[in-house]
Amino acid sequence: MTFDTQNYIELFYQDADEHLQIMTDALLDLERNPGDKEALASVFRSAHTMKSSSAMVGFMHVSEFTHRMEDMIGYLRDNDVPITSDMVTVFFKGFDVLKEMLSQLQDEAAEAKRNQTNHSAKDLIKVFESIANGDAPAPEDGPVGDRPRIRLNEENRNRVEELRLSGESIFEISIRFCDDVQMAATRAFLVINNLARIGTVILTAPDLDDESQSVVLDFSILFSSKEKEPAIRKQAEVSEIERVEIREVTDIEQFEWPHSKPEASSAAPSKENFEAPGDSPALEAITSFDRREDHSRNNTVRVSIEKLDRLLNLAAEMVIHRGRIHEIAQQLVLHNGKGGLEEEILDSITQQGLFLTQLQETIMESRMVPIGMVFSRFRRVVRDLAHAHNKKVNLVLEGEETELDKKIIDQIGDPLMHMVRNAVDHGLETPGERRAAGKSEEGLLHLNAFHQGNNILISIRDDGRGLNLEAIKKKALENGIVNSEEMASMAPKECLQLIFRPGFSTAEQITDISGRGVGMDVVRRSIEALGGSVELETEAGRGAAFWIKLPLTLAIIQALLVEAGGEIYALPISNVSETIRIRRSDVFSVNGTGKVIRLRDDVVPILNLDSLVAASSNGAGDELCYVAVIRHGGQYAGLIVDRMVNEQEIVIKSLSGDIACASYIAGAAILGNGRVILILDAASLVEQTLGAVV
Question: How many CB atoms lie within 10 A of CB 270?
Fold first, then answer.
């Protein structure tokens, strides 16, 4: 009987991902408690399993690499060797190479990218063998060979985060000139200028603008673009260039190039690409890899989110048409009386509605995934950041089982990553600073997710230095974000919101708010694009807390239906604070411009929805009128409407064309009677009511 590896490849990928996560978690536990033998044994078991399973399905280069890692772990376990921070770093580099190998097996990988992973694996195998022979690993900051190494300062790190949040991909490009190149400096600048046409050149190594630097044969570029690798390679390849290697950076903490210099040729990997010293079976490993690569790129058994979207849309259409049929059946019953065939039809349609509701709920449940998928990767990030900044951080994760729509999970990762990085980089103090402030040396970073009604709340809290309100005010005035008159009228909570303003940043590297404002406007926009909001609290010397409110799903929302100018509009119920009824005489003007009402002890600015959508309003009507009080980012505004219709669930439909250009429109929905209504964007309405960006 022939053993068909193809049937087991899908299972291998799933198990490999699980084992990588098990090894990462166990290693983080081991670093905190070096004497935890069970954690080391867990890493060993997972490496052993991956070695065997990868060999079983024919991925011999993966098996060879994990075999060498297993040998190293076995030596550490059997000889009770103390686990040092440098050893942990070596482990994590090995995990990163394994992830690259698995990724390249499943996706179309460029030749240069595969070559790069090959060289990384060979370098690490030598390190594994060295440790297994009893030699300590070289420190992280040791020699790295002659390949130019890019290092990010704080400004560039935040720049990378902003570009990623804006939807661009980050690439590291390695250029090698021919040995006999003429005018290397001129050609290097030509590459830079070509790349600038399709993206942003963040920095180069060495710095080509530094006149003291002589241009060498090798240089590296950190680059962002929305283009794909072929377009980038086309711009980077000029004459007398021997090699161009392009690597997409998915984690800026692990973006550095391999320590050793790769082969000069960019030809396809040969048999020796994964050859380990003195071990000839590695020759067959790459032969097997090349032979099986095409077979490994299979479609996953997981259902794509696009198919679930189609199912949900079809269910929504059925609900809409059922509502229409139900309305017709009711009219027939009213016309012909009860007891006839019409009443039986009405009962049948009512039963059908119950089944359709269950169908919708089932589809929605299939889209939900635990937020622990996002939280789990922060353990590694926080560990590396704390290690790099000589800080001690205790990361506490709660609510990992809380479920969110898959689309939200996919998009919330980058904003959360930015906020976690800021908390570790700038929110938490060094051990010395914490001792001087009477705190424990270890800082606390707490992430939690939990349900609140039809929403999910995510909190990111630290017990660090907090945000300096006076420094925020000073920087906002210096940057011209607000003037002195506006600042004088702002409450402390409003001043804190300034860090979310576009253009707010801190040029100084050593301030209480360094890094907290850079890119926070992009973070807020990303969260609002998901239908969410973000608020913050802080206390000087005690820490800061960010609260992110997100809808459970982007497909269906609970909405308040209101009427204005004869049209029905929907307001997301998560943005509605309360509804009230007032007299038109209760509305008064402030400084002859905006209109406000008194709501208990507060003054709330108001906007007439009829005048917004119809571009005109005579302000006439009944003496009594309805107001929906909406909130956004800690700010409130009142929306005058003609009538409150009802509250119900609606299915969001995206818009395109001119109607989508109206800033106050977030989408559309179809009611049960077939009527199309517009969904209002609460953030835009509050901003327009206040007369300025909040």
Answer: 15
User: The tokens of 517 are what?
Assistant: 């404002």
Helix (H) or strand (E) holding 173: strand 169-177
580: pLDDT strictly greater than 70: yes
**Amino acid letter at 83?**
I
If we measure between CA atoms, which residue out of 171, 225, 222, 232 comes closest to residue 199? 225
- Amino acid residing at 395: L
DSSP H helices in 240-296? 281-296
Residue type at 551 in one-letter notation: P
Of the candidates 449, 286, 305, the residue with the CA atom closest to the CA atom of residue 373:
449
pLDDT tens-digit map of 642-684: 889 888 877 777 766 555 556 678 788 877 677 888 888 877 7
Work out whether strand 643-651 and strand 635-641 pair parallel, antiparallel, or are unpaired.
unpaired
CA 451 – CA 212 distance, rounded (Å): 57
215-232 residue pLDDT tens: 567 888 889 998 888 889
Q: How many of the other CB atoms lie within 10 Å of CB of 312?
A: 20
Nearest-CA neighbor of 381 among 26, 6, 28? 28
**Residue 628's beta-bridge partner residues?**
579, 639
Nearby residues of 568 by Cβ (< 8 Å), 6 or more positions away = 561, 562, 645, 671, 675, 677
Determine the Cα–Cα distance for residues 288 and 675; give it in Å rounded to an integer: 60
Q: Angle, to 10 degrees, between the axis of helix 372-388 and the axis of helix 406-422?
A: 20
Structure tokens of 250?
């998915």
Q: Is the pTM of this model over 0.85?
A: no
335: burial class by Cβ within 10 Å (0-12, 13-18, 19+)? exposed
User: What's the CA gap between 21 and 378, in Å, rounded?
Assistant: 12
Give CA separation, 431 vs 437, 443, 444, 509, 653, in Å: 10, 8, 12, 19, 51
CA distance 396 to 412: 19
How far apart, in Å, are the Cα atoms of 327 and each of 77, 295, 316, 669, 671?
73, 55, 17, 18, 12
Closest CA to 61 of 125, 129, 131, 132: 125
Cα 623 from Cα 569, distance rounded (Å): 22
Tell me the residue type at 639. Answer: L
Compute CA distances 396 → 334, 375, 439, whole Å.
61, 10, 18
Rounded to 5 degrees, what are φ and ψ at 45?
-65, -45
**Which secondary structure element, helix H or strand E, spans residue 602, and what is its range?**
strand 602-608
Neighbouring C-beta atoms of residue 157, cutoff 10 Å: 18
Determine contact, residues 246/233, Cβ cutoff 8 Å.
yes
For residues 632-665, one letter each, b for 16 or more C-beta atoms within 10 angstroms of the residue's C-beta and e for the rest, the string is bbbbbbbbbbbeebeeeebbbeebeeeeeeeebb
* Residue 527 near residue 534 (C-beta atoms within 8 A): yes
Residue 262 has pLDDT above 50, yes or no: no
Dihedral sign for Cα atoms in the order 131, 134, 136, 138: negative
The distance from CA 641 to its chain's CA centroid, rounded to whole angstroms, is: 37
Tell me if residue 503 falls in helix, strand or coil. Answer: coil
What is the DSSP track for 509-553? SSSTTTTTSTTHHHHHHHHHHTT-EEEEEEETTTEEEEEEEEES-
Q: How many other C-beta atoms are found inside a 10 Å radius of the C-beta of residue 687?
A: 19
The CA-CA-CA angle for residues 538, 540, 546, to 5°, reads 20
Query: Could you tell me how far CA 156 lies from the centroid of its own chain?
Result: 19
Assigned token pair, 330: 């009711």
- Report d(CA 583, CA 79) in Å as an integer: 83
Rounded to 5 degrees, φ, ψ at 342 are -60, -40
DSSP, res 499: G
Q: Is 628 helix (H, G, I), strand (E, B) or coil?
A: strand
Q: Can you say how many angstroms the Cα of residue 200 is from the centroid of all Cα atoms in its chain?
A: 21
